[in-house]
User: Fold Helix-turn-helix domain-containing protein from Virgisporangium aurantiacum.
Amino acid sequence: MSQARAAQHLGASQQWISQVERGIVAPTTDAIERLFAIFDLKVILDVEPTGTGLRALDEEIDEVRSLSDDDRLAVVDTFRRAFDELAPVPWVVSGRLGAFLQGAPLRVYRLDLAVAEPDLDRLAGVFESHQCDRWNESLLDYYGAPVHPRLPGPMRWLLGPNELRVEVADRLPASITVGVAGRYLPVRPLADIEVRDPGIATVMRRVRTRVIHS
Assistant:
């Protein structure tokens, strides 16, 4: 569901919906329940333990939030070469980078992309032309594994200096466009990223909890 449609259903502004997604403002319980009801879902109260794990989450959130605009651009620029080399292939940014591009306070370790199954041969062409290595589970290294994504093996490659992980779907998922550093990147919406990555969902849940209790 788009932010515009969610805002219309709740009688709120699209900007408010965006701020809720990024953990900047806290929604009321009523708003949360009405939003989940759109998808025939209900809210269930959960708890999280305190201790080392929670402190690590807070450290990550605070560290990323303290980044300057230039630092944030530098994070995205880390993947500049990969974006250029993958230009022949349609893709959508997902994972931690996708969330980061939407303002989520997450450390970014690698590039996660969603690619449509019909485009895998084009992706293989990129890997072959740039002599990429695929993760070899037996050797625990990027070496000696068949590069073509249609062949068995982990969907992990080394593309220049970047680790790339690929999620294959029948067709490209819905995306939003994020402009950064002179590029316009198709990015999976934050809510969809959270559904697919429990680690990211945990961080964002902590972000929203902190807003509620601030």
User: Anything to note?
Assistant: The beta strands are 92-94, 111-116, 133-136, 141-142, 156-159, 162-169, 176-180, 183-187. The first helix runs from residue 3 to 10. The mean pLDDT is 90. The longest strand covers residues 162-169.
